[in-house]
## 1
Amino acid sequence: MNPTELIRKKRNGGTLSKEEMEFLVRGYTEGKVPEYQMSAFLMAVYFKGMDFEETALFTDIMLHSGIVVDLSEIPGVKVDKHSTGGVGDKVSLILAPMVAACGVPVPMISGRGLGHTGGTLDKLESIPGFRTQLSLEEYKAVLKKVGTAMIGQTKEIAPADKMMYALRDVTGTVESIPLISGSIMSKKLAEGIDALVLDIKTGRGAFMDSEEKAIALAKTLIAVGEKFGKTTIGFLTDMSQPLGFAVGNWLEVVECIGCMKGAKVPDLMEVTYTLGGAMVMLGKKAPTIEAGIAMCKEAISSGRAFETFRRLVAAQGGDVSFIDHPEKYPKSEHQVEIKSKTAGFVQSIDALEIGFAGIMLGAGRMRVDEVIDMKAGILFKKKDGDAVKVGDVLTVLMTDRNSELDRAVQRLEKAIIVGAGSPMSTHLIKALIDGTGVHPLNPS
Ligand code: URA
């Protein structure tokens, strides 16, 4: 088979057979199909798409580029969640220990930052010593001991996605339903779960910016999950402004530590509790999502979620003293406040622009091999709907990169809109989606 012919076939809108897809994906994983040909293929998929059968096949081939972990020795219904990607989306860091503290095992394989969005692995690695590259035996041992384990793809688990993810990040081929589906579901199906909760983001900071596209993605992900025999449900959640107050790896860890100790970050915790409630329900520890949410709230208020997080950090080699004393972490050389020039209310904070500004400050990657500055990022002092006076601090930028500061400040000034009149509040959790369809949700 010739890769060029297969690229042309997809470019012209054709459907690849199992053998053809295997040839390309395996060939790429084994180093026989070069990056430039895989990049061209990904771009062809971006423009021409895949039908459902082809998407499921692609996912299956990605999944079987590695092994499927057998977690049957660990008792309980194993449940994970995955987000389609957002800005300031640090939910997993609170969710995994919180749900584990409710008695549901949470095996979690996560990704790195992608495009303008952050990644759980990068956030975890901002904790000094924290190892996300565990062997399979270590992964199982941590899961058994702590109730959750949070790792990245290894060479055994969905290696095709590990390679393709990095390539998509830098070739403008992220926002594609079949590619996102193959990427997310191959990782999730490989990690040994019984059920999955998806957080499908919509809005400016999401890969699927319109609700229509996000719902189409959700339906595909759920159908793929069900095809592989995993109960899969999704929530459609808003990502038009960043989640929480912090954007940037260590800054987000600190925000999560605060939340696990009871700090009030309403939007972040609303998403975390909703997803957690669903996981606890799917894990058969609660009869309904509402009952699951109540258990999750108790896990936070009792301190059990935080204690589980500390044990997770210790079990994966992290230095717990930074969790207990976050203030001892190094600080950025430059901390620049952006103040409001007008009075009124925050009308919007453009999550996409914030994501890109974060990358300029060093909190994300522009190239595959770029090293992240873990302490860099953006701290918001005001969010959508907050009242603002002239001179109030809207946000603080943190970076060591002097050269990028002015441009980042300009970008942020444009991204935060202050105007007269309190804006209409948007619903953060818009719908529950399952195999039976889309169920719109009212705000709580
Ligand atoms: N998250 C993933 O793991 N993969 C994608 O393609 C997008 C979000």
Note: The longest strand covers residues 195-202.
## 2
Amino acid sequence: MSEATEKIKCLIIGSGPAGYTAAIYAARADMKPVMYTGMQMGGQLTTTTEVDNFPGYKDGTDGTAMMMDLKHQAERFGTDVRFGMVTAVTLSDEVGGVHKVIVDENKEIEANTIIISTGATAKYLGIESEQRLIGGGVSACATCDGFFYKGQEVVVVGGGDTAAEEATYLANICSKVYLLVRKDHMRASKAMQHRVDKTENIEVLYNTEVEEVLGDNVVSGVTAINNQTKKTTEISVTGIFIAIGHTPNSNLFKGLLDMDETGYLITEGKTTKTNMPGVFAAGDIQDKEYRQAVTAAGTGCMAALDAERYLGAIE
Ligand code: NDP
């Protein structure tokens, strides 16, 4: 280790809306929180352009600006925001025990409480044209970006509940939604599939995959291939929503904390408590259902309150 061990009351891992909100509350409660931001400072919201649905921004804002506002607000109350990655964790299972964390493989921290807000990462197809046009018509969040495609034609990719939900959400805003499903059936629940089938302006294309996203700076369409007939078709659209699932950023905690079969951390009842005393989880890392900035912020607040009560009880 390069430096002496630092001892703190509250460590926050991750810098999305959950992490910053936890930081605001923890700092105001005099817990002197230290936050490590991770590599993508500000989290997933920095990959969207405009944010119109976060309460308080009456004219909307952009994702990056909003995350800078949250950072400044957390710092105003004394949060120590540091750029860095937590690379190893040892958790104590004793009430009042100290949790040890290594940052960037060379700095050791001992924390009485940890708030995990490492979020989830949307899965993308991984093709070059898609990656290049993220923010230019390629999105992984219909609730965030759908509004900007009002009256336009869009593609949704995926066959699960998220894709079905995004397609029906977009069908209320857009003139037409093409749902591209790579198998000959959808994985979504029967109820969700029924909603899709009932929606007149959704056209489901089975056995269909995206070959190329078209457009230089903004999306102008996709080339889709039928994986049975090998026939390719060009579909003219202005937006493409990738809804093929999310991966929770929980690798660091495998074997240490209870998680479901897909890696989302499990919290106790209506609290943010994990199965380890003094370790709390907030935001998308523990929520595969709602995944909104405002719901993440809400659980960030809860995590700081849970941590404050925990510290109060052990001090
Ligand atoms: P899922 O993993 O359930 O589904 C992912 C879908 O994307 C599958 O249809 C899969 O196809 C498809 N897919 C994966 N990779 C690719 C690719 N490279 N190209 C094309 N298609 C691809 O993820 P969801 O996000 O839909 O759901 C995650 C969990 O959250 C589920 O348990 C779901 O039930 C739950 N959920 C519940 C909701 C609700 O109840 N309201 C809303 C949203 C999610 P294939 O089938 O061929 O593997």
Note: The two ends are 29 Å apart (CA to CA).
